[in-house]
Fold this protein.
Amino acid sequence: MKAIKIISNPEAFQLLGDETRRRMIYLLRAKEMTVSQIAESLHLTPQAIYHQVRKLKDVGMVEVAKEERVDHFIETYYRASAEVFQLAHGVGESKEYVENQVKEAMEGLSKLGVGVKVNPVIISKIVQTVKKMKDPMTKSEWNEKASAIEDVDFLAKQAMLEYVSLMSMSDREFGDFCKHYTELRKLLRSSLKDPAQMQKKG
C-alpha cells in the first residue's frame, strides 16, 4: 500500500460520492478484507459489495492484497491502494467533462427549488473561475505526516490537508483565492431566474 496516491480519474471522483464506497475504502485502509467480511461489516450482500469492489479496483483505489485457499475455494483479500488519496481535480479531465459536470450541478439546483438559467457562456466562465481557485498543492511534508496518522478517516485527512493548505497560503495567494470565490458567487447569482428568491430563503 502506498502512503499517498494522486487520484485524477474523473470516474474515481464520482465513485467517492457514494457513502458505501467511502466506508469500504475506510475499512480496506485499516486492514485486508474479503468481500464477505466487508459485506458483514456494512450489513450488505456479498453480491453488492463485489460489484462495488470491482468498480474501485478498476479505478485503482482498491487492489488485491493476497489470495488464500480455503477448502476448494480461493479467498481473495482486498486492501486500499494507498493510505491517503489526494484528489487532483483538473488533471486528466477534459474541458468537455468538466463543463458537463458543472452543467449537471446547475441543472440539479432545480431539485433544491432554486431556479437557474443554464447558459453555456456562464458554464464556461464558472469552469475557468474554478480552475483559478485551485489551492497550491500541499507540501509533501504534510502529506507524509498525514499518512502516518492511523486513527483518522482518510476523508478527514483530505480535510486536514485542505486546512493546512489554506493556512500555509500567503496573504496574496489567499486574497486571490477569495477574489475568485467572489467571482464564482457573482456568476452563480447572475444565473438565478429570480434573484429575490435567495433573499427570501436566507
